[in-house]
Amino acid sequence: MRIEQMHVGMRVRHPHYGTGEVKALEPKLATVVFPQGEQKLSPELSGLEPAEPLAEVSGLTRPLAAVIRETVQALAEELGLEREEGLVEALGARWHGGRLVLHPADPSLQTKEVPLEVFFHKIVMMRNNLRTLEQKINAHEKLTDGEKVELQQYITRCYGSMTTFNLLFKHKQDQFSGSSS
User: What does the pLDDT look like over 157-175, one tens digit per residue?
Assistant: First the structure.
């Protein structure tokens, strides 16, 4: 391993000392902290290897912060996560600051109020989780086509039940339909 490939905080593996963390770098030596103690080693001569996956990016012409931001955003979308302010923007303007009020039939019981933004967030998370479930079913290698269709029908019925909440969405394309497609 070359010294240029290393950075402080990187986890490395040594044939004799095991796994350690790079503490400092000099032109030809790396200071690595192993469970047995600190060692100064020549990465090229000592047999050090990375103990973690590495990625090499060449020809990068974009700011690193932009690449990281886009990567994190794509991951969040894949996981069905959305930023709080993004959810409020997707909520129809007439509902901003509104409250969902539940009155029990028994007047001796307390009324429950929930901010519509909180309720809307839960609805959107259900939608995103249904989409993720649908993707996992479609990509599952052990399910037969018939089993996939059967499970898909349950998801379609869930979407149909959720159409009651479509009036909360600002944009029609974000709403529930009888099908998730």
Answer: 888 888 888 888 888 888 8
Query: Is 115:99 a contact under the CB 8 Å cutoff?
Result: yes
Distance CA 21, CA 32 (A): 5
Q: What length is written for the chain?
A: 181
Residue 50 CB neighbour total at 10 angstroms: 13
Point out which residues pair with 41 in neighbouring strands.
30
Q: What 3 state SS string does 121-180 have?
A: HHHHHHHHHHHHHHHHHHHCCCCCHHHHHHHHHHHHHHHHHHHHHHHHECCHHHCCCCCC
CB distance 53 to 104 below 8 Å: no
Convert the pLDDT of each residue in 52-72 to its tens digit. Answer: 887 777 776 777 777 788 888
- Smallest CA-to-CA distance from 39 within 1, 12, 5, 4 is with 12
Q: The whole model's pTM is what? A: 0.48
Give the closest residue to 114 by CA, choosing from 126, 101, 125.
101
CB 12 within 8 A of CB 50: yes
